[in-house]
Amino acid sequence: MAAVVNDTLADALGRIAGAENVIPQDAARTQYANDQWWYAVAAAAAGEPISRPDIAVRPQTTEQVAAIVKLANERHVPITPWGGGSGVQGAANADRGGIVVDLRGMQRIRHVDEQSLVCVVEAGMACRDFEAAMNARGLSFTHYPASTEWATIGGSIGARGSGVLSTKYGKIEEHVLSVEFVTPTGDIVHTPSVPRHAAGPELTQLLVGAEGTLGIVTAAAVKLHYLPKQRVFGAFTFANLRDGIEAGRRIMVTGLKPPVMRLYDTHAASHSLARAIETPLSEPTLVLMFDGEYPELVEMEAEMAFRLCREHGGKALPAGVGETWWDKRYVFYYPPYAPELPSIWGTVDVVADFEHIEAVYHETTKAIHAVCPPEFNLSLTTHFSHWYEWGSMIYARMKIPTGPADLTEAKELHDAIFRAGIEAALAAGAVLNDHHGVGMRLAPYMQAQYGAGMDALRRIKRALDPNDILCPGKLGL
């Protein structure tokens, strides 16, 4: 794509969104230099950023977004939507230059329906701020991503994100009832307000997980819940991981719905979890939380789950362990727990059904350790953080304290670890990602995941985006 980005484009964007909302190249390349993908962070720090926007703009309305997209089509300039920049897969990097469209100028709560418990909110609002606004009404969005301070509504939808309460309340696709979006050619579309009924294909879900490649989500109607009147916490240790997985499986397949159920393997329990909750741990550990409107029902559901844990060899820890985890649930993603340069880090999060999940865990763990030379002292802390009626996922967080000083060599090591982990997971029966999105990091594996289905996705992309304006190359499209 031969992008035409010059002063006339800045003037045109200023006429659409206001000159005060146009960020020129030098400032744009600083403000939008990277998302939180390790390589994007490392490359920017080395003065070789992969995100090189030519200009950025912060529209205030959906109509302005549509006009920007039409302008980009006229001039064949790529567009990269930007939310909070908290993604970890590289999706938000403007690696082909062009225009960054920063949706954070659109943060309005348009309508709250307290009868139906539905809210229409704009895509640029941060999840934390939206949750606080709903809490003031006695309501909750129940989408609590680890990056809630920065992650936006639109970013969560684009990356098919998940939060710590997903086991009961679902991932973002269960929260979203309908979306307003701008097509790659600049049309404004409102999907049906009541989802998944006999009105043909589900257009809303086409946008969920598309990471901006098929349209720019500008607002969404989302489900709300009442703030729970009761929360009950529990924590159990198990002699081995298999017993912990089986306890979790029994909880899910028998219809119990813990908002939180996290099973930490021995290394994760004895290192990251023990450190955060200030309790020594030496065995796989399961943390649970139940909540709801009716305290008696919450207590009963929790006790049934705790009984299943005991039946599968679980030894109860003080309930305060679970409460402490809840109070500190975000500390894992901030220093000193979160890694920083010159470390290499990243998470292989894959999902599988119960028939395969234990093998996926072992094969992925073995492959990651095998490919990293011992002198780099790789640590791998893995937990099962999101559970479904049919399976679970592993969140395998790797860290190398100090990688090669040369950026190219460091990236080769990073990529080798991810390649080994992803290929082992796929071979063992997993799906390559659970809730972090695909972006640039996992794009090379989309063909292996979808096979001939990738041709169908590419045809959809070409039909909707004939000029390849939106996020060209992302998702392997």
Structure report:
The chain has helices at 7-17, 25-31, 38-45, 62-75, 127-135, 153-158, 166-169, 172-175, 203-207, 241-253, 266-277, 295-311, 319-327, 357-371, 407-427, 446-450, 453-464; strands at 22-23, 55-57, 79-82, 99-102, 109-113, 118-122, 139-140, 176-182, 188-190, 216-223, 225-226, 230-237, 260-264, 285-292, 315-316, 344-353, 379-384, 391-400. With 477 residues, it is of the alpha+beta class. It has four domains: 7-105, Uridine Diphospho-n-acetylenolpyruvylglucosamine Reductase, domain 2; 109-226, Uridine Diphospho-n-acetylenolpyruvylglucosamine Reductase, domain 3 (2-Layer Sandwich); 230-333, 2-Layer Sandwich (Alpha-Beta Plaits), CATH 3.30.70.3450; 344-441, GMP Synthetase, Chain A, domain 3 (2-Layer Sandwich), CATH 3.30.300. A seven-stranded antiparallel sheet has the order 15-12-14-13-17-18-16, sandwiched between helices. A five-stranded antiparallel sheet has the order 5-6-10-8-9. Strands 1-2-4-3 form a four-stranded mixed sheet, with helices on both faces. Helix 10 (241-253) packs antiparallel against helix 12. The longest helix has 21 residues, at 407-427. It is globular, with a radius of gyration of 22 Å. The mean pLDDT is 95.
